[in-house]
Amino acid sequence: MSKTPQPDPQGSGETGPTQPLPQGMPGWGPAAQAPGQLPPPPGQAPPPVPPQSPGTPSAWSQPVPATSPLSGGPGSGGPGGARTRPWLIGGGAALAVAAIVGVVIAMSGGDGESAAEGKQSGAPSGAAEPQAPTSAGKSFTKVPEGCRLIKASTIARIAPGTECKPSQFDNSTMAAMITRMPSWDTPFGSGGGQLRLDVNLTVGPSASGMFDIHKKSALDALKKVRTTTDSRSLSGLGDDAYLVHGVDKDPFDLAEAEVIVREGNAEFTVSLTYDTKDSGRNQQQAEDAVVAAARDVLGSLS
């Protein structure tokens, strides 16, 4: 049995809607004003809803779909659609993924190929990239063991009584660099003062830079405790050669002659440390000794 429509409480004579409209509906509120029509004075009821033709569904009488976010159905957080809409989340995630993919493609050059593959545009597939020359002059690829860099006859002449000790780096051979660091020392308790000969060899693309570093170190590293008595460039020894001699300040009695040499992709130093009081050597002899040893080192490379 249907209920009898109740009169409008404002006295307008019109019946109310058959179903109350949620507050979230866009039609909630006073009726729209016709163009040119003035709003009603305060205290007066709003004008009645215009009648509609028979059979035409009214926004006041048409039920809200159960699936609408405004009706509290699935996908809704109650009146007003407070729950976040799933399609907004999905769309935002899709946009974020698209943006990330675009950045990755832009960083990789836009062609979908990894830069780590070393491919160049227009180059045949699998072709190796040309390598820039690392240094001018000779390119050495073979280096003997550390204790064989200097001839035994040369050692007997410039550092008699010393024994060679290979470094842990002597057999370190990498793809781009070879190093040798042997040393010749007088055995402990043999007398005759301290005598030590050192070689520090590098074969690789960093030869030119290492030459500058070792030259600066020989001139400046010990200047607070050592007096430099000779420093000059040498000719006829590799592509570049520089000689430095220094004497320790009192109360120390040691002196050192060092030559820094570069030829092609090889760079090395030869230094002779000796006791100025007990070794029986002088500056000239020490300088001649390191130059002779450096010639042997160059002659051993191939």
TrEMBL record:
Transmembrane segments: 87-107
Keyword annotations from UniProtKB, A to Z: Membrane, Transmembrane, Transmembrane helix
Biased composition annotated in UniProt, kind: Gly residues: 72-81
Ranges where the record places region Disordered: 1-84, 111-140
Biased composition (Pro residues): 37-54
Compositionally biased tracts (Low complexity): 22-36
Name of the molecule in the record: Uncharacterized protein
Organism, as annotated: Streptomyces milbemycinicus
